[in-house]
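Q&A FORM
Asked by: J.P.
Topic: structure of GDSL esterase/lipase

PROVIDED:
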Amino acid sequence: MKMAPTPLPLFFFFLSLFSLQANSQLSELTTPPSLPSPLAPALFVIGDSTVDSGTNNHLLTLARADHPPYGRDFDTGRPTGRFSNGRLVVDYLALRLGLPFVPPYLGLNGKVEELVQGVNYASAGAGVIFASGSNLGMHLSLKRQMQQVSDTYERLELGLGEVAAADLFTKSVFYISIGTNDFTHYYFRNTTNIRSLYLPWEFNQLLVETIQHELKNLYNLNVRKVIIMGVAPIGCSPHYLWEYNSVYGECVEQINNMIVQLNFAMTYMVHKLNMELDGAMFTFCDAFEGSLDILKNRDRYGFLSTTDACCGMGKYGGRVMCLFPEMACRNATNHVWWDQYHPTDAVNRILADNVWSGKHAEMCYPMNLLNMTTHKT
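REPLIED BY: S.T.
REPLY: Here is the structure written out as tokens.
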């Protein structure tokens, strides 16, 4: 049983109603007052909808979160393009680092002063594989985002000088969160008959090798501090609970097993790169383990629902994407899932605590972000 696609003309009609308002609201996003002295000069973000802060507001795509009820619990109380009711993990981490929320790259004019505290290249629908998420419309793939990183470095060299640009990238934190769409909108959909070409372990290896290649490219741009966020247990997401007709809310094991194998391979790859690349401080954070801890201990974290999306339609709220405020629950703080695939602000806060210091569960190896930024070389 498959979800009927939203008619494109109708969808883009609604986008036209929200776009101008959402884009104007991005300019109202201000830095919270009294930020401490930064632990890093900048935060640069690469990834998909788990960290998109407004990139796709500028693209013709189904993957947009620039309309209510997205952002209703955000600092501005309005949609910004974030796929959540509130903040993302990187928003919480930016504040921990003493930095402002990271603006989307596509919303900037390219001036050096706009780049020096970091930018967000992430695009909803993006994947490690170029074709991943293409069924959703326009997006910026990992390769395209890496090109933007290179462009940023060149602009910084021109504006600051070669030495200062290299120093900025070396001391900054890069955060990568990508891979979900390679499963949800590519492998599991069997796009281009991919499953006949790659067994699950072979596909995972393809993803790992591609990410490894891009990490080396970042290293060659003088990047040394990188957080690589693993894929969360999407087999527990409302969409797959609905699609696989989960009876009691049990997760889809065949999906989660593939994610576990990917994250294991990613951990080893990151360890290997740290051994090979002088001065590299790459860290892998296992979003699967961190999320599973929340699902298993929901009472401790104050969650009432671990299966139903706060905003959605159909069983578990997993059949139809979040489109209107009327589709959303009143209180998202007691829900793990905000929509079909994305967690609530409350979950993002917990995961950010873990990435920062392992406050609730140790999920980052070989070090958390606090250790990374206070490490003396």
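FOLLOW-UP: The chain has a mean pLDDT of 92.
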